[in-house]
Amino acid sequence: MRTRPLKVALLGCGVVGSEVARIMTTHADDLAARIGAPVELAGVAVRRPDKVRGGIDPALITTDATALVKRGDIDVVVEVIGGIEPARALITTAFEHGASVVSANKALLAQDGATLYAAAEQHGQDLYYEAAVAGAIPLIRPLRESLAGDKINRVMGIVNGTTNFILDKMDSTGAGYQEALDEATALGYAEADPTADVEGFDAAAKAAILAGIAFHTRVRLDDVYREGMTEVTAADFASARQMGCTIKLLAICERAADGESVTARVHPAMIPLSHPLASVREAYNAVFVEAEAAGQLMFYGPGAGGSPTASAVLGDVVAVCRNRLNEATGPGESAYTQLPVSPMGDVVTRYHISLDVADKPGVLAQVATVFAEHGVSIDTVRQHGRQDGGGEASLVVVTHRAPDAALSGTVEALRKLDTVRGVASIMRVEGE
Ligand code: NDP
Ligand code: HSE
What we know:
By secondary structure, the chain is an alpha/beta fold. The chain has 3 domains: 6-135 and 306-325, 3-Layer(aba) Sandwich (Rossmann fold); 140-302, 2-Layer Sandwich (Dihydrodipicolinate Reductase, domain 2); 344-429, Alpha-Beta Plaits (2-Layer Sandwich), CATH 3.30.70.260. It has 14 helices and 17 strands. The chain has helices at residues 15-26, 28-35, 65-69, 87-96, 106-122, 140-146, 161-172, 177-186, 195-198, 201-215, 234-242, 306-325, 363-373, 404-416; strands at 6-11, 39-45, 61-62, 76-79, 100-103, 127-128, 152-158, 225-226, 245-255, 262-272, 284-291, 295-302, 348-358, 378-385, 392-399, 402-403, 420-429. Strands 7, 8, 9, 10, 11, 12, 13, 14, 15, 16 and 17 form an 11-stranded mixed beta sheet that branches. The protein has a 6-stranded parallel beta sheet with strand order 3-2-1-4-5-6, with helices on both faces. A hairpin with a 6-residue loop joins strand 14 (378-385) and strand 15 (392-399). Helix 7 crosses helix 8. The longest helix is centred in the last third of the chain and has 20 residues, at 306-325. It is elongated, with a radius of gyration of 24 Å. The mean pLDDT is 97. NADPH dihydro-nicotinamide-adenine-dinucleotide phosphate binds at residues 11-17, 45-48, 51, 65, 80-82, 86, 104-106, 131, 135, 188-189, 191-192, 304-305, 309. NADPH dihydro-nicotinamide-adenine-dinucleotide phosphate is lined by residues 11-17, 45-48, 51, 65, 80-82, 86, 104-106, 131, 135, 188-189, 191-192, 304-305, 309.
């Protein structure tokens, strides 16, 4: 074993960084044995130097992250600060000064992964980011390496722990949205600004990363259709239950049937209770990958939290250190297919539409005509007259599969009917 240690600079020591430091310290001997050289924590950059950080030598703490990555003797920079800047500048500076980088920063990778890959390649360094998608679950490496000989056609799953935690609590305990979000935040699952979670930005960033790797093309955050879960109500869960479904925030990346384009989207969807994703509880994540030769694969595990995420970070640290000892680098960007990303309107899906309608003859026929005019076929219709004397009925329509543009056009036309008093909810149905 080499006795000279490999030096790690830790940028950020919050929920994830503090666990990375703890495991690096407590498992130092095992890590050294697995790598073939000791790894040493050489510096820890934070914003608040006076905060007490148990188990970390105060002499390692600095607020000057730039000076730390410029030291020249650092082998691996672990970036767990988050956000776009200063993370991007620190990562590119690290490459310029001869360090490889391990990052958990999905927001940055989805927005500007190409710049980071290019800088890593230019300076002959590694860029690893297993922790950026689905916490502890090994997913990036299986896609980048194990499935590199196959053709992936679809990736679908739950990739945000916070929103799965909230939806699960709303469904299973009747908890309110805010109460469940507060609990997820206290458990360290939420982003620094939880809007990123609940409005679907975090899942969209992960979808962009997954689609890019799976289809060997560039997909950026802006290419991903995104709807958050803040509008999901207890009434939606009640409707879902009547259909034998539950509601999950899904990320779905697909290769078009003709292979000429891809789509990536994030939105809440009803899925049947019999579907494996329906039983993914709390902050767990699960992702299905459909590959031509391999068939269907499912990856499941803790999707957020300090310790699970640190596991993924340290797996990358070990891989990068091994590469350095072998004077090699791991895989770089693979974007050779250059497939365009199609708009949401082209995606084929199903809608569950709940309408408040006038309870009088001919209304059902009027509604059915609108569906027919848009080329959307109806699967099921349920109508309940209201007993409140207001002359209204609740009409629930579930469609067959149709392009999203046709489905959304149908909803717009329904809104214009005098007999449609309101569109109570619209939810896509997936997983059948
Ligand atoms: P935290 O907010 O808990 O920690 C951020 C850390 O960065 C803090 O230690 C903070 O310092 C430090 N920091 C902030 N700005 C600077 C700066 N300018 N210079 C130096 N240090 C700075 O975030 P998390 O640990 O939760 O997340 C970190 C990254 O990991 C993010 O990219 C996140 O998306 C990702 N991630 C998080 C997961 C989770 O479950 N939490 C799971 C997967 C990925 P100080 O302590 O002084 O405030
Ligand atoms: N906020 C993220 C989530 C952290 O809840 O999934 C893990 O990426």
